């Protein structure tokens, strides 16, 4: 029995809520799209097909091992997110957070999904907003919380005038330049600590 016959049905049946689940095999990385797409800020996040991904190189493994000390700390009261490496602050960005009744969850989490140029499906109207800098989700998505249906994460926004406020449906909005910078600083599994 091949690995595809064993693992692929298990992955597809799991309904993990991720847009793509990557299966590492000796010669390739296979991108699998489960039936349930990742749910973003009150809606679905869609990603264009990516096909096969290149193997991880020795240089990339070295970069990943250096980033094990990295973590994201979101301070809701300050409306700021910080990227740390050890005790050193690498970056700090102004953000908008969840409004009353839709508060951004507090606690210890980790980066569970990273997406470039996500599109957003409006859960009330059903229309899909295409990817891009003027998209509701901006140019990057970094997911860190899910209940299996909804997912909360950091994302860009065209509404930069709302930064510093509690206005979202739980997600953390950032300037597109800032989310792109943070996107390149963190990896899947990077700890995310959300403090009141």
In helices, the fraction of residues equals 10-25%
By helix and strand content, what is the structural category?
A: alpha+beta
SSE run:
HEEEEHEEEEEEEEEEEEHE
Number of strands: 17
Using the coordinates above, name the CATH class: Mainly Beta
Biggest sheet, in brief?
5 strands, mixed
CATH architecture: Beta Barrel
Number of domains: 1
Radius of gyration: 17 Å
- Low-pLDDT parts are 1-58
Q: Can you tell me the CATH superfamily?
A: L,D-transpeptidase catalytic domain-like
**Mean pLDDT across residues:** 76
Strand residue percentage: 35-45%
Number of separate helices: 3
CATH topology: L,D-transpeptidase catalytic domain-like
Strand order of the largest sheet: 7-6-5-17-9
- Judging from the principal axes of the Cα atoms, what is the shape? globular
How far is the first residue's CA from the last residue's CA? 50 Å
Please summarize what this structure is.
The protein is of the alpha+beta class. It has 3 helices and 17 strands. It has a 5-stranded mixed β-sheet, covered by helices on one side. A 4-stranded antiparallel β-sheet has the order 3-4-11-12, with no helix packed on it. Strands 10-13-14-16 form a 4-stranded mixed β-sheet.
């Amino acid at each position: 029995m091949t690995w595809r016959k064993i693992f692929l049905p298990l992955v597809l049946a799991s309904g993990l809520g991720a847009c793509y689940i990557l299966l590492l095999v000796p010669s390739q990385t296979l991108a699998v799209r489960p039936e349930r797409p990742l749910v973003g800020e009150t809606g679905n996040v869609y990603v264009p097909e990516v096909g096969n991904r290149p193997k991880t190189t020795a240089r990339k493994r070295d970069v990943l091992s250096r980033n094990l000390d990295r973590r994201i700390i979101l301070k809701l009261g300050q409306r700021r997110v910080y990227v740390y490496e050890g005790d050193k602050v690498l970056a700090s960005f102004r953000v908008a957070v969840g409004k009353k009744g839709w508060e951004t969850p507090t606690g210890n989490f980790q980066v569970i999904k990273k997406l470039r140029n996500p599109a957003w499906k409006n859960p009330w109207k059903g229309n899909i907003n295409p990817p891009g800098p003027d998209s509701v989700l901006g140019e990057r998505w970094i997911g860190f919380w899910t209940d299996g249906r909804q997912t909360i994460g950091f994302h860009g926004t065209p509404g930069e005038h709302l930064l510093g406020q509690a206005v979202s449906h739980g997600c953390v909005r950032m300037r597109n330049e800032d989310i792109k910078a943070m996107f390149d600083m963190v990896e899947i599994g990077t700890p995310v600590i959300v403090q009141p």
